[in-house]
Amino acid sequence: MKPLLTSLLALPLFACAVPSASVGVHTGQYSMDGSLGLSAASSGGTAGATTSFDGLGLGDDSSSLGTDVVLNMGAPTLILSAVQTDFRGSGQLTGELEVDGVTLADESPVDSILDVNLYQAFFLFELVPGDTIDFALGLGVDMLDFDGAFTGETVPGDPTSVDTVVLDQPVPLPVVGARAAIALGPVDVSAFVTGMTFDFDDVEVSALDIDLRAAMDLFGPMGAFIGYRENSIDIEYIDGDDAGKLDFSIGGPYLGVRASF
Q1: 172 C-beta neighbours (distance < 10 Å), count
Q2: Cα 55 to chain center, whole Å?
Q3: Distance between alpha carbon 60 and the CA centroid of its chain, in Å?
Q4: DSSP string of the chain?
Q5: Each residue's pLDDT tens digit, 199-233
Q6: Beta-carbon contacts of residue 168 (< 8 Å; ≥ 6 apart)
Q7: For the whole prediction, is pTM greater than 0.90?
Q8: How far apart are the C-alpha atoms of 104 and 6, rounded to whole Å?
Q9: What is the dihedral of CA 183, 187, 188, 191, to 10 degrees?
Q10: pLDDT (mean) for 153-175
Q11: Nearest-angstrom CA–CA distance, 49 and 96
């Protein structure tokens, strides 16, 4: 949690340097779905057999910790956010996992650790500004940072042949998006959607991030909010001698508090 905690301390200081800003902290319960394949890269090929996250033992929900900052600089508005989750569990592979020359055998029992961090920096330009209805378009960068370790057998059925495959794969994505908001009495309801699809060199990516939120003022500069976020990505890549195939979605409800400056 250290990188995220550093952000929590630093962002309010940064926020005080702009005309107006708000800083939010939230916690939630996220679940993960999809499948993962890692193998040696071959000419024109990508990872073959995959194992579901349930099969890896990563199907249980995980608590999340997040922060976001909205910096209103007139035009544009800058949104910065970070969410950190961690998943742990045990399962069984339905395909080989191979990274950096280490191969875990098909059908091997596996102990899995996967930390998923979601970062976002996004510029919004208002097209329909207002106190009741607001609509804005923009562009920015979404990044999913996967940090995992999978421990299993390299020889099928041999519990003495245990090794660990390490996954350290940040996925930065240029994205476009839109935010729509409406005031319903004391409650502000918003939808923030970003995404992109592209095929570049040895990477094919399709990504979509949807964040739905309802917020209201409490007292003074303080407010509270509740929401639901769903981030999904399909990616096939070749990175040096390694290839990966990821069909991934993560999301869940969250609630938090916000301070405005």
Answers
A1: 11
A2: 21
A3: 17
A4: -HHHHHHHHHHHHHHTTSSEEEEEEEEEEEEEEEEEEEEE--TT------EETTTTT--S-EEEEEEEEEEE-SSSEEEEEEEEEEEEEEEE-SS-EEETTEEEPTT-EEEEEEEEEEEEEEEEEEEE--SSEEEEEEEEEEEEEEEEEEEEESSTT-TT-EEEEEEEEEEEEEEEEEEEEEEETTEEEEEEEEEEEEEETTEEEEEEEEEEEEEEEEETTEEEEEEEEEEEEEEEEEETTEEEEEEEEEEEEEEEEEEE-
A5: 877 778 899 999 999 999 998 899 999 999 999 99
A6: 146, 147, 148
A7: no
A8: 35
A9: -110
A10: 89
A11: 7
How confident is the model over 99-109, as pLDDT tens digits?
888 889 999 99
pLDDT in tens, 235-260: 888 777 777 888 999 999 999 999 99
Tokens matching residue 20 = 């107006």
Residue found by looking up tokens 């596996």 in the block: 110
Confidence of residue 42 (pLDDT cuts 50, 70, 90): low
Question: Tokens in use for 111?
Answer: 């102990």
DSSP string, 82-125: EEEEEEEEEEE-SS-EEETTEEEPTT-EEEEEEEEEEEEEEEEE
User: Which tokens belong to 207?
Assistant: 């990504």
